[in-house]
Amino acid sequence: MSNEENKTEYELPDITEKIHCPICKDGIIKINRTIHRLPDGEDILILLMECSNCSYQNRDVITLQTAFKPGQWILNVEDGDLSAKIFRSPEGTISIPEADMEIEPGSHANYMITTIEGILERMIKWAEYFYKSLEDDEDKTIDERRKKVEKTIEILKMCKAGTQKFKVVLTDKTGGSYITTTSKNEKTLVFEEETE
Ligand SMILES: [Zn+2]
Asked: Nearest CA to 121 among 51, 22, 191, 54?
């Protein structure tokens, strides 16, 4: 952050951890952040992400009223559009309440750059993996647990197919995560700042 324009009241957190490329997995993502003031006075943050190895490039725009503030993003997916992008910091939790599924920040949690479709694919893969691991389990409650996971997988697949309306909830107390969408419908994406 060297130029004049960036010396504003906004405090952007440093991204110190290496972010691996979501496409080639080998490259490291370089993030370039620029703050712009729009003619109507609103400040936006432009993030340009480039891979050091392949041609992957991603450009996100978020308003600075919501950028990097601690809180919760809620995206309502009602029309089967899975193209909204998610940037999750290692501290962020992503959940889909309808499917009773959550991606928690773990000790090896990494930055994640993906779309809603990518989140659903990941969740389906993990739920199926978890389902298989239940087969070796001698626990008496196994049938019940199997049914619960089956239901989760079924709902996630419906979300992916566009036949189920659902919410994606991204919570980050450190403010390092965000969701961006091209939808102009304000009800689609809501940000609630955490105030203490
Ligand atoms: Zn790459």
From this structure: 22
Return the pLDDT at 64. Answer: 77
Using the mean position of ligand 1's atoms as its centre, give its distance from the Cα of residue 28 in Å: 7
Does 169 lie in the same domain as 104?
A: yes
Centre of ligand 1 to C-alpha 7, Å, is 31
Q: Half-sphere exposure of 52 toward its Cβ, with a 13 Å CA cutoff? A: 9
Splitting the chain (196 residues) into consecutive groups of 10 residues, what average pLDDT does each group show? 49 78 90 86 86 92 79 94 90 94 77 90 94 80 90 98 97 88 84 84
Last residue of a domain, one of 17, 35, 66: 66
CA of 29 to the centre of ligand 1 (A): 8
Neighbours of 15 (CB within 10 A): 13
What is the whole-number distance in angstroms between the Cα of residue 57 and the centre of ligand 1? 8
Q: How far is the CA of 62 from the centre of ligand 1 (A)?
A: 23
Q: What is the pLDDT of residue 109?
A: 65
DSSP-assigned letter for residue 150:
H
pLDDT of 28 = 93
Kindly state whether residues 173 and 193 are assigned to the same domain. Answer: yes
